[in-house]
Amino acid sequence: MFTTTGSRGLDKAPLSKGLLLVLSGLTVVLTLLPQYHHLFTYSLQAITQQQQVWRLVCGRLICLDLKDTFCNSLLIYNFRIFERRFGSRKFASFLFGTWVLTALMDFLLAEAFHYLFDYQVAELPAGLLGPVFSLFVPFYSSIPKVPVTQLLGQISITNKSLVYIVGLQLLTSSPYMWLVALSGLISGKLYHSNALRVQRLLFLPRWLSRVGAFLLEPLFSGLPPPNDTPLGMGATLDIQRQQRMDLHDQQMLLAQFNQARRNHRPPQDGLMNWNRFFPSLRHRGQNFAPEPQPHPSPQQPHPSLTALAPTAPPLDNTPVAEEQVARLMEMGFSRIDAQDALRASNNDINVATNFLLQHLG
């Protein structure tokens, strides 16, 4: 369920990969060296009374609890889809902007809590928690909700349910984690809606992004996931058969893509010819009646030529649901691309979303 909004792995997400490796590694190091924990605690009292401003940096980067680190890493891994869609610079600007805003919101909410309940909040959970909670704002508004299954026949499980469960687990891990979460959500809403033009004020300059790409991207960028993934040795026959079908589908897509390039037919109006990329292989091997083949017309090629390379049947007349088209348009894709993707994927919004995010995101 963590891969329903994009492909597996950390391909095209070097910043997310760097955050996962560096922050998790530093947490393990601090676990082995507990005598240095006091340097990375997020103490509001030490910042305000002892002027230890450096705690705003050290206390808001590294988690001191392994459970918080695990949940935080799962959320960063899932939110890598925003780096693939917007680019590393815009994703880094979002994290930096919300990181600055949450520093201010933490003090404002702590003072409001002290004024309302007469209780002083001396210390908050440490780590890169505020910006991660702020990513729930674009996740809620930009990623479409696709039903996956139902629990007990009544509770609907979607592709976003597990992400919210992990966020809830992180929210209940510490007494004052709710304050950090509320600060992150408010900061994420302010930055996402560009209130008071904070995106322009807290956007990373181009020269800094170039320096970061030159120094850090070669270290954390990896190879794309291979297409020839070996089949599971311990899988059942049904799982092995499904894996072979998926592998064959990927090979068919790649072969048709290469054939489309050899035919040197430019796409009309700058759009992709979706019918060439999606063969009707989704219901192979299932107990469905075979679809009637269209009658040959004078414009169709000779059967001996079509037997050389399989092509997808025409999908121009396939009806699409306007609700699914609207969901894809909310993610920033054009109406024509959304309609073509839904027609080509037999109205499966999950497959259409994955293809649009991977190839046009």
From TrEMBL:
It is found in: Membrane. InterPro entries: Rhomboid-like_sf (IPR035952), UBA (IPR015940), UBA-like_sf (IPR009060), UBA_UBAC2 (IPR041928). It holds the Pfam family UBA. The chain crosses the membrane at residues 15-33, 91-110, 122-141, 162-186. Residues 302-317 have a biased composition (Low complexity). Coiled coil: none annotated. GO terms for molecular function: serine-type endopeptidase activity. It is a multi-pass membrane protein. PROSITE patterns: UBA. Residues 283-317 are annotated as: Disordered. This is UBA domain-containing protein. The lineage of its organism: Eukaryota, Metazoa, Chordata, Craniata, Vertebrata.
